[in-house]
Amino acid sequence: MNPYKSESNPSSNIIEIETTHLLLSFCTFCALLKGKKVSLQNIFLLVLQNEDLRVILKELLGVDSDIEIVKIFLEFEPSLTTSKYITKFLNANKGVPILSSRY
């Protein structure tokens, strides 16, 4: 998500900028909860592990499903898909509830 790219639909651009801002604000919130700097990879894993954080993020972003949260994270930072750290976590925790949920 690039909040500064020019699109033909202004409302789409506003939604993208607001989504980026809310996601970054949520990342700041997670860092404050942990009391230290937290990478985006670790925040993504926190969201996967903690249902309370997923509920907060869904409420902030106005989405209904956990899968939409994953989609937003991956659109924001596509390099999460190639992270060995996240892959290792997913392989070790195949029973994570968010991963077994359907659309």
Structural commentary:
It is a single chain. This protein is mainly alpha-helical and 103 residues long. It has one domain (10-100). It is 68% helix and 0% strand. It contains six helices and no strands. It has helices at residues 10-34, 40-49, 51-61, 66-76, 84-92, 97-100. The longest helix is centred in the first third of the chain and has 25 residues, at 10-34. The protein is globular, with a radius of gyration of 14 Å. The model has no long low-confidence stretch (mean pLDDT 84).
- Largest beta-sheet details: none
* Helix percentage range: 55-70%
Average pLDDT for all residues: 84
- The fraction of residues assigned to DSSP E strands is under 5%
Low-confidence stretches: none
Regarding quaternary structure, how should these chains be classified?
single chain
Number of discrete domains: 1
Shape: globular
Total strands: the figure is 0
Helix segment count? 6
- Give the H and E element order: HHHHHH
Based on secondary structure, the structural category is mainly alpha
Cα-to-Cα separation, first versus last residue = 22 Å
The Rg value, from CA coordinates, equals: 14 Å
Element layout with pairings:
Elements: H1 10-34, H2 40-49, H3 51-61, H4 66-76, H5 84-92, H6 97-100
Descriptors for this entry?
103 residues, globular, single chain, mainly alpha
